[in-house]
Design a protein that fits this description.
This protein has a single domain, classed as Gcn5-related N-acetyltransferase (GNAT) (Aminopeptidase, 3-Layer(aba) Sandwich), CATH 3.40.630.30. Helix 3 (109-123) links the parallel strand 4 and strand 5 (128-131). The protein has four helices and six strands; from the N terminus they run βααβββαβαβ. It is an alpha+beta fold and 169 residues long. Helix 1 packs antiparallel against helix 2. A six-stranded mixed β-sheet has the order 1-2-3-4-5-6, sandwiched between helices.
């Protein structure tokens, strides 16, 4: 997988995200109108964070490839992983939503977006990453993407050590 995608703050790309959200609205079981409202109001300065399981920071990113917005990823850094018992010294990150523009599918962008999200979380101290597996159609391409990354998608909340997805250093 080539690492061509970058993550940029979602609130800087609301127009492109409006379009992508409209294109995928019938494919996800998430309230995308609510999600988009959150993106539009998320205009605050970002500061570096150090994570713990007591603190949770929600992050929303536009997934960009060669300067074009091709998707969206949202989740949180810190606060553990829903339904997963982590070791006492572990810090979780959780991907709750990944969207790829239908015209951009088939290029492994969802996997790249998850890896980029994992890298951001790792740099802030996360040790494990979990994800929400949306079971609405088309589910099989999602399952394949998550399997390629090493997630056991038979688990209710697929989880990995974050080091499996990131480049340390």
């Amino acid at each position: 997988m080539s690492d061509t995608v970058t993550l940029e703050q979602a609130d800087a790309h609301t127009g492109a995200l409006d379009t992508i959200f409209a294109r995928v609205a019938d494919e996800v079981d998430v309230d995308l109108e609510r999600e988009l409202r959150a993106v539009h109001r998320e205009r605050r300065p970002r500061r570096p964070l150090k994570l713990s399981n007591e603190s949770t920071t929600v992050r929303r990113f536009a997934v960009c490839d060669a300067g074009r917005v091709v998707g969206y990823v949202a989740g949180r850094f810190g606060g553990g992983i829903p339904g997963v018992s982590l070791p006492d010294d572990a810090v979780g990150a959780f991907v709750r939503l990944v969207l790829v523009d239908p015209s951009e599918r088939g290029r492994e962008l969802a996997g790249q977006a998850i890896c980029a999200f994992a890298q951001e979380a790792y740099e802030r101290g996360a040790t494990h990453i979990g994800l929400r597996l949306d079971t609405t159609d088309p589910v099989e391409p999602r399952r394949r993407a998550f399997r390629r990354l090493g997630f056991d998608i038979e688990q209710p909340t697929p989880t990995l050590p974050i080091s499996d997805l990131v480049t340390p250093g």
